[in-house]
Amino acid sequence: MSLTLRTISREQHLAYIQSLPAASHCQVPAWADVKTEWRSESLGWFDRDEQLVGVGLVLYRQLPKIKRYLAYLPEGPVINWYAPNLDDWLRPMLQHLRNQGAFSVKMGPPVVIRRWDAQAIKAGIQDPEVKRLRDIEATHIEPRAFEVSDRLRKMGWQQGEDGGAGFGDVQPRYVFQVPLANRSLDDVLKGFNQLWRRNIKKAEKAGVEVVQGGYEDLAEWQRLYEITAVRDRFRPRPLSYFQRMWTVLNNEDPNRMRLYFARHNGVNLSAATMLVVGGHVWYSYGASDNIGREVRPSNAMQWRMLRDAYAMGATVYDLRGISDSLDENDHLFGLIQFKVGTGGEAVEYIGEWDFPLNKLLHKALDIYMSRR
């Protein structure tokens, strides 16, 4: 296949994304408006008939004092990753980005390499010899993903660190997903473990109500989110970030972003944001108060969000990032423990890859990032 690459309009980019069953929310044109600290560009791949056959959202971050950029394609580009001529897709992209002043390119191919079902993970947690997901035999392995990795290495791409240390935003390599395609809601609920099902019933009996919010409720979201940040010791994003996210994403598609609250006796106890692109639905950000945990608002809220995703015709409900650690002493262990209760599966992508266009500047960036 003879391919050409050039800058395309946001309209062309969005129309292509809308023609697909799903794509990452990090690859829709409006994601560029969420990330205001980066310059952006929409790229399009065309076949010899001038048909658009792939797109990519590139975010450019300038180095201090010089006009050189890190070019980043989060969870992209959206191309045929299994094409035998992968070089014909990526070589013109590298040349174009070099011409734009990029000194290094980072991308996150949306290619799944392994899956572990809930049963396998639970068995791994109970085994004292098992410390990481990779210590467990995968339930499903995608052989073509290994071919993609081999091709990238041969082209000179370098695999990023497992932890994903990078320049700015870095997407998770491991996520947790609940498959919804060809399943009844009853089947999905039966897949939940006993504790989850009990907690959903407990919330129902206690009268926990789950409602959708709007732009005007983002200040209340921020209140719960900042309580969570103090408790879990992370630096929260400002309210303006979520206001911008809501505005730009829903301007692009009125159903792109949703906000949910779980409340008891009129008091909001937990909240979450949801993102939708085609048949892929993400639980994006979560927040909860330090009070009212006994009525299980988070379980009630997840169950409502999952049911809404199902009603939209989603094929997957994505609970986003997890650590691959199965060590009970690891501070992130609780995250996988909570998510595995949904009966879904842990999913490993092939990770983020770097291509140094200027080895000296790329190395300098690596040193800078390691000292942060």
Give me some keywords for this one.
16 strands, seven-stranded mixed β-sheet, 372 residues, Aminopeptidase, nine-stranded mixed β-sheet, alpha+beta
Helices and strands, with pairings:
Layout: E1 4-7, H1 10-18, H2 31-34, E2 39-46, E3 52-62, E4 69-73, H3 86-99, E5 102-107, E6 112-117, H4 118-126, E7 140-141, H5 143-155, E8 158-159, E9 174-179, H6 185-191, H7 194-206, E10 209-213, H8 218-232, H9 239-252, E11 257-264, E12 267-277, E13 280-288, H10 297-311, E14 316-321, H11 333-340, E15 345-349, E16 353-356, H12 359-371
Helix pairs in contact: 7-10
Order of helices and strands: EHHEEEHEEHEHEEHHEHHEEEHEHEEH
CATH superfamily of the domain at 182-314: Gcn5-related N-acetyltransferase (GNAT)
CATH C-level class of the domain at 182-314 is Alpha Beta
Oligomeric state of the chains in view: single chain
Helicity level, as a percent range?
A: 25-40%
Mean pLDDT across all residues, rounded? 94
Our count of helices gives: 12
Q: What is the straight-line distance between the termini?
A: 44 Å
- Strands of the biggest beta sheet: in what spatial order? 7-6-15-9-14-13-12-11-10
Q: Which strand-content bin applies to the residues?
A: 25-35%
Q: Return the CATH architecture of the domain at 182-314.
A: 3-Layer(aba) Sandwich
Please outline the major beta sheet: 9 strands, mixed
Secondary structure tally: strands? 16
Global morphology: globular
Radius of gyration: 21 Å
Uncertain segments of ≥5 residues (pLDDT<50)? 162-169
Family: Belongs to the FemABX family.
Organism: Streptomyces fradiae ATCC 10745 = DSM 40063
InterPro entries: Acyl_CoA_acyltransferase, FEMABX, PG_Glycine_Bridge_Synth
GO molecular function: aminoacyltransferase activity
